[in-house]
Amino acid sequence: MTRYILRRLAISFGVLLVGSLLLYVMVINSGDPLEDLRQSTANNRDVLIQGRIDTMGLELPWYERYWGWLTGVAGCFYGACDLGTDRSGTDVLSLLQQSASATLRLVTIATFAAIIIGVLVGIITAIRQYSGFDYVVTFLTFLFFSLPVFWAAVLLKEYGAIRFNDWIADPQISVLQAIVTGVILGFILQGIMGGHIKRRLFTGGATAIFVIAALLYFTYVGWWRSPALGPVIVVLVSAAFAVGLTALITGLGNKRVLYSTLTTVGVGAVLYFALQPVLAEPNWWILIGLLVSAILVGLAVGYFWGGYSRGQAMGLSVVTAIFMAGMTFLDHLVFAWAGFLDLKPRPISTIGASTPNFQGDFWETTLDWGTQLILPSILLTLISVATYSRYTRSSMLETMNQDYVRTARSKGLSERTVIVKHAFRNALIPITTIVALDFAALIGGAVITETVFGWKGMGAMFKEGLEHVDPNPVMAFFLVTGTAAVLMNLIADLAYASLDPRIRR
Amino acid sequence: MSEDRRDSAMQGAPEPLPHAGGEVEEVKFAEKSFSQGQLVRRRFFRHKGALAGLAVLIFITVLAFSSIGIGSIPGWWDKDFATTGTVVDGGRPTMGWLTWGEHPFGQDTTGRDYFALVMRGTQISLVIAFIVGIGSTIIGTIIGAVAGYYRGWAESLLMRVTDLFIIIPLLVFAAVLGSIASGSGIWALGLVLAAVTWTGLARLVRGEVLSLREREFVSAAQAIGTGNWRIILRHILPNTIGVIIVATTFAIASAILLETSLSFLGFGVQPPDISLGSLISDYQTAFTSRPWLFWFPGLFILAIALSVNFIGDGLRDAFDPRQGKDG
Predict the structure, then answer these.
(1) Between A and B, how many CB-CB pairs are < 8 A?
(2) Distance (Å, rounded) from C-alpha B224 to C-alpha B310?
(3) Under an 8 A CB cutoff, do B164 and A15 touch?
């Protein structure tokens, strides 16, 4: 196994090297780097041209320029990184430090959201094959496959940001809007739940009534402008999550695991109150520390309750603890929304990765990031969701037709066990490959998204570099995305090995 | 149980039926024998989504090429895409439910007829997409077949190039190549894009060829001394034609999106030429004041890509009903 991974890494490294050479040569031959100066009418034109020739090393042959760049990059291995300068003489490394975090944040969020949503939707459509829900999702995936990203981005800017901001200034939901939303959601949910007509009517109707009532109530109490979750909601939702997760993975018959996850929620509830003063004005290090301690709590609870199924109890308790931590985080974030709206009356932005000169406490700054991030993330997620749900669906259908699934059914295992343990686990194997392969495409999509949303991210760096025939920024973009793609593939390989024991050698 | 769920779903299903069909027909065909081609055609024409897609694509293509004409051949539309004029009524579209009016899609800021502009963009985007689709099919088929049949260097080349595209985003590669080819016209752009989009198809063909070369009919051909190229061309490739046609269709759909994205970023079709992507790029800021400048080219891209994707889905079901049923 180690040998296999090392071999893959070596190949990736070689490909990265060849790719960099290819890209470098292509970029410096893609146009005339002096074009704008040649057309300029400035008096000191010749001086400017000479200056740029010196900064960019244009008088050197291509292999010397490439070699110079490569030795600079090699310095990164012993702490003397030098990615060169762009055409105006700015250090590319410092440019990269400003831009990389925005792009990687975007791509990471989009990847994880797409995996979770896509896999879930894929499983449901596979289980409910040829249902109305399946047809609707199939049509939507085709639509998302065919959607020009840049066009959808402008649409999203208009309807997701500008119209939403108009609405949030005076949030009103009319009875009609609430009813339509409720009926649509109820219709979707009954399609997912399936079953006989009676059951469908019941789930659909109950959902619709609940949604309508909630929407009208929220509007009535002005929840949209000053929302809050509060401890009751946090604990209830977390407990529901704990029960649901246990029911899904081990079944409620396994009391050890059930008690373990519920105890985790209990400990979380105590901590919720105990940590209020700390969470009033935290920073990221405190939050990361708290997340780690939440994981430790989950592990400990699972260990003590676990008994005969200690492994599962620990795993599920950790997931519950992370979920509960997330809910607590969300609770504080939601609570800060009212103050945030005073600072930034039009919350969803269409330009940039953070509001310039934004002053606020920790939660408000985080909200500011979030509101800048949400539209590009939705866009990137939508397109990958289409791919992932499609692959999950066909992969699930394939495994569900296998002999071992029939065996599992015929020996009387519950449908949950058959799907979660026998079919889904095997269906995951091809999905990991797709996720890894798709990562580069996602970064490509990020270039377009950043352009539309005016982010000063790596996509902009790449685009400007290529327009100016300036290799160093383009190569810096390539270095980061290439390394990220290699890492992603490594993770996929590891996941592959843990899913498929045959290659664990 | 799953059988009758499927049947009832088919009867009560809404119009697109991407994955229905298969077994039922084969029972009916048992009395009379059909050739492979007839079977495929029959299954394709039962796929409603694919038929609708085909109709839309033909309509758009005919509309784009007949309205403003090709090159010096004039079309039936009396305006062309380069002539500027006075802006009437803020350039608003004059299209009603049944009437066309003077400027059905409106006018741009300099008074050019937007219908003619969009048609011109559609022409160029379609031409590039077909060049890319066919070019990448030819390259992909040759390399895939050689890699699958001879293995050896062609196979490792294919694998390494695939690795390269896992690491470098396709869009990045295409943007760099596009900016090299820019100014040399749309044919150069199409060929350059074909040079980076063939890997997926090559891998598919290689997989097919790998399994076909172990079959008895290939051994038989080898035993009577048939040359390698003749085996590839006459015995192996005809058996992969389904895979190739389907992959080509999907390649055309993604080529439309790739080209328009590049033109949007400014690395694709260059100014004197117009593509649907460059139209959106030019007018994206006009969304609030002149939304039609933004809506029409985007809707055309969406319609073309969607119809080609549906055709591809129908073809896949037609060539391989077993796979279609599973999704």
Answers:
(1) 166
(2) 43
(3) yes
In a domain, B29, yes or no: no
State which residues form the domain around B266.
48-69+111-323
Contacts 24+ apart (CB under 8 A), B84-87: B84/B110, B84/B111, B84/B112, B85/B111, B85/B112, B85/B113, B86/B111, B87/B111
Q: What are the backbone angles phi and psi of residue B144, rounded to the nearest 5°? A: -65, -45
CB contact under 8 A, A444 and B171: yes
For chain B, how many structural domains are there in total?
1
Specify whether the CB–CB gap between B186 and B269 falls below 8 A: yes
Is the residue at B97 inside a domain?
no
For residue A320, the model assigns a pLDDT of 92
- The C-alpha atoms of residue B281 and residue B262 are separated, in whole angstroms, by 10
Residue B91 — pLDDT band, cuts 50, 70, 90? low
**pLDDT surpassing 70 at residue A473:** yes
Record: contact B305-A437, CB cut-off 8 A: no
DSSP letter string over B145-172? Answer: HHHHHH-HHHHHHHHHHHHHHHHS-HHH
Task: Identify residue B20 by its one-letter amino acid code.
Answer: A
Which residues of chain B make contact with A441, given a CB cutoff of 8 A? 169-171
Q: Is the overall model pTM greater than 0.90, yes or no?
A: no
State whether residue B310 sits within 8 Å of chain A by CB: yes
The answer, for B207 touching chain A at a CB cutoff of 8 Å, is no
For the stretch B32-55, pLDDT in tens is: 677 777 888 888 888 888 888 888
Type of residue numbered A52: R
CATH number at residue B308: 1.10.3720.10
pLDDT in tens, B12-26: 334 344 444 444 445
- Whether residue B1 is predicted with pLDDT greater than 50 in this model: the reply is no
Residue of chain A with shortest Cα separation from B307:
A146
Mean pLDDT of chain A: 82
Query: CB B169 to CB A444 under 8 A?
Result: yes
Whether residue A15 and residue B18 make contact (CB cut-off 8 A), yes or no, is: no
Instruction: Examine the predicted complex and report whether its ipTM is higher than 0.90.
Output: no
Sequence-distant (≥ 6) Cβ neighbours of residue B21 within 8 angstroms: B43, B46, B47, B317, B321, B324, B325
Mean pLDDT check: name the lowest of A403-407, B111-115, B142-146, B155-159: B111-115
Q: A261 vs A133, A237, A257, A302, A305, CA distance in Å? A: 32, 13, 6, 8, 9
Residue B27 is assigned to a structural domain of this protein: no
Assigned token pair, B240? 């992969």
CB A160 within 8 A of CB A378: yes
A93 to A72, A73, A472: CA distances (angstroms): 11, 10, 10
**Which sign, positive or negative, has the C-alpha torsion A220, A223, A226, A228?**
positive
- Residue in B9, B13, B168 nearest the CB of A482: B168
Residues of A in contact with B281 (CB under 8 A): 150
Chain B neighbors of A147, CB-CB under 8 A: 302, 305
pLDDT of residue B267: 82
In this structure, is residue B86 part of a structural domain?
no
Say which amino acid occupies B219: S
Write out chain A residues lying below 8 Å of B305, CB-based: 145-148
- The tokens describing B248, both together, are 């080509």
C-alpha atoms less than 13 angstroms from C-alpha of A361 in its C-beta half-sphere: 14
Strand-pairing partners, residue B73, are B70
Within a 10 A sphere around the Cβ of B92, how many other Cβ atoms? 14
List all residues 6 or more positions away from A389 whose beta carbon is below 8 Å from its beta carbon. A117, A118, A119, A121, A122, A125, A137, A141
Q: Which residues contact A372 (CB under 8 A, 6 or more apart)?
A: A349, A352, A353, A354, A355
* Most A-contacting residue of B160, B172, B263, B307 (CB-CB within 10 A), to test interface: B172
Candidates B292, B289, B272, B293; CA nearest to B281 is B293
